[in-house]
Amino acid sequence: MDPRQACLACLAQDPPGLFEAALWIAAEHEPQNPPGQAMRMLDDLAQRLFATLPLDGTAAERAQLLLRQLSEQGFAEDDDVPLLPRAALLPQVLQRRRGQPLSLALIALELARRQDIPLQGVNFPGRFLLRVPGADHLLDPTTGRRLYTRDCRDLLVRSLGTGVELNASHLRDASPAEMLQRLSRNLRQLHQAAEQPLAALKDAQRVLELGEPNVADHLARADLYRRLECPQAERYDLERALLLSEDPAEQLRLRQRIGEIPVPKKALH
């Protein structure tokens, strides 16, 4: 079973093996870092943290304390400029203790699962967040800071601008498949920015396998196919994007771009 198949198999488990699936995503890019090695690192980390994590208190209090303990252990948001793919590859995040919010959240979610803390991922735009069901706040996975409605509005403005109002769709829980799809999008962007188109193409293809793709997902893969000089594969993704698009101006641009791709000549027999 190759890493992609292993990832999908973990996702198909009941309950889904989210953390192991994310490790298999990393193994697609770094076969020298197999999931077993990263699992042992997490086991060691869990042993240190759980020795001092109290069993009493509310779920919200224990979740916040867990995140703060991770922060005290040196886990923090990666501030490298430019940000490198290692910020989203979990074995490297465990080794370096630096990563994107989603990467740190995946570690926290696995640790919380082992302690029966009902922590959930939140697919907030621009920054992945966490919550305990029923709590009146969200949690920043990089620090454990509580985020109330005003904090979420501020985050939304930074991500999408002042013209967007905070609503329930911004605060919905993320399923395991959605978290892995978001992780794959992050890696696609990071590999593309790092001038690694073949690695980015792996991530772009995985995005489409993990859930319903959107226009941007097909356009991102089309751009990679263009760079890799695969015109017919580029055409396929542009045509899929055209079918999904509801923006007339975007539809016009897509038709123009499709028209610029030469149609292969049929062989004569």
From TrEMBL:
Alphabetical list of Pfam families matching this protein: Transglut_core2
Domain Protein SirB1 N-terminal, residue spans: 39-184
InterPro entries associated with the record: SirB1_N
Source organism superkingdom: Bacteria
Annotated family: Belongs to the UPF0162 family.
Stated name of the protein: UPF0162 protein
